[in-house]
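To assess whether ligand presence alters the predicted conformation, the chain was also submitted together with flavin-adenine dinucleotide. Input:
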Amino acid sequence: MTSARKALVIGGGFSGMAAAIELRKQGIEVDLTEIDPGWRSYGAGISLGAATIRAFKQLGILEAFLREGNAADGARLHLGSGQVIGELPAPRLAGPDVPGGGAIMRPVLARILAEATRASGTQVHLGVDFESIGQDADGVTVRFSDGRTGRYDLVVGADGLYSKVRRTLFPDAPKPRYTGQAVWRAVLPRPAEVDKALMWIGPHTKPGVNPVSKTEMYMFITEHRPVNAHVDPKDFARLMRALLEEFSAPLLVKLREQITEQSSIVFRPLEAMLMPQPWHQGRVVMIGDAVHATTPHLASGACIGIEDGLVLAECVGSDLPLAKALETFQSRRWERCRMVVENSLRLGEIEMTGGSKEEHAQIMRDSMMALAQPI
Ligand SMILES: Cc1cc2nc3c(=O)[nH]c(=O)nc-3n(C[C@H](O)[C@H](O)[C@H](O)COP(=O)(O)OP(=O)(O)OC[C@H]3O[C@@H](n4cnc5c(N)ncnc54)[C@H](O)[C@@H]3O)c2cc1C
């Protein structure tokens, strides 16, 4: 028996949609507000580990992902010359027949989740911000930018890195900080030889490719940029090609030539933020990037945000009083999310300072083992 009958989810990103779908499964009435009238999703591909595929299964979107994205086991590592140096294994957490990883275009995953959100019976309100959140002993009153007012037992802030819910409830919370690295991503045609995620270990960068469908893949390169200066999109293709110049691997040489001014390229300075506990105040709780925004070094930011939604709904749907349910949610999520944010930051530091390759490999291994644990 849940102590919440009606919930509001603020933010229709991956975390908010996962929370809405799972809260509906607990019989809770759900409103979701998304500030963007077009509910758009930007960016290139997104890499998915075994734990994310396991979460997709629970959400009920595994079939759609397997149809529209690309599932594959682990990753293959190369030297800059192209010589294979090893395979990173991936546990099959979603069942013996489902590969333990993969990738998909962000807008495709957003569409799949949006369809599942609407199908769950969630009432979606697009182009809507909130103006105030007021709490008393019995509930939360929210005033919206479209003039409506709603009364809820639970409010979930899933409004991302620059969360207004966080700024409103916790004005002293740490601000997102630039980490010193940026990521370049480009969508390219998928050659037949790219059967899974491939990475090349160079002296300064570690480019990789990951198939996002049968015909396309995305390329990613992390760059050390001590100053977070503006980069003119006119220069994107030239700068991305330059980062690949130190590699002689035949596939990378070929791919470098395919990066042109017409390519779809996304440049993103990396920011991170870990909100100290608690992540809730009264009946308002925050999830996803709003409380634990990570750099992509473990490709697990979306994973832990989606998992927040799963665990939150399970706790709120239990027979615990709401305050206790939110404490239980916090204690189940804290260590795992802290681990992803802090280990990802450490991996970035090692890359920027040319630090120990052994420590880098050990952190990757330990993190992957930790992520494979039940949530
Ligand atoms: C360069 C880069 C690469 C990444 N690669 C990976 C990867 O390969 N694998 C992986 O797992 N993770 C990756 N991540 C992390 C992942 O993208 C994020 O962790 C994830 O998208 C966070 O989802 P979210 O729903 O918590 O937040 P967001 O995606 O930020 O969603 C928040 C939503 O709330 C809406 N919103 C904002 N304010 C309001 C408001 N006031 N009212 C209503 N709505 C509002 C926004 O419009 C948005 O739709 C990467 C991140 C970066 C930066």
